[in-house]
Amino acid sequence: MVTSASASSELVLRGYRAFVDGDFDTISSLLAPEIEWYPAGGEGAYANHSDAVEAIRDAYSEGHRVELERCISRGDDVVVSFRAAREARDPNDPRPLQSRRTFTIARYAAVITIEDGLVARVREYPHLTAALEAAGIDPDEA
Tens digit of pLDDT for each residue in 77-88? Predict the structure, then answer.
């Protein structure tokens, strides 16, 4: 079944909103039972449904704040780009109001493939341009 580009984008946006809200039941319902997840490093697929939900839950529990920057559809593929930021406390400092904290900001890009109305595959890329090119979208026109 081919999904319309707008339906594919809407499904990804529902997942994004569910992450922001900490709604893991919705996230779980959006993922295919046999989801494949390919990290940017190219080690091969590492996730099944429960692993994917757990990885997403871990990112949420680590306090990542996620800001979606781009969501571009092309048929069943949706290219996403977002910024994730979090604050980490010094594990050696027991004071409740620590003066020593680290802040991390990371960028993330992926091509998310929708099949039968579910996220079937996530392929991560080191940057947005690589994800766009993998989806067959000209970066100059995106």
Answer: 999 999 988 777
Sign of CA dihedral 21, 96, 58, 75: positive
Q: Which one has a higher pLDDT value, 10 or 40?
A: 10
**What distance in Å separates the CA atoms of residue 112 and residue 135, rounded to the nearest whole number?**
9
Provide the 3-class DSSP secondary structure of residue 100: coil
Give the class (CATH, top level) of 5-134: alpha beta
Name which of 105, 3, 124, 130 is nearest 52 in CA terms.
124
Domain boundaries, the chain: 5-134
Contacts of 128 (CB under 8 A, 6+ apart): 70, 79, 81, 107, 109, 139
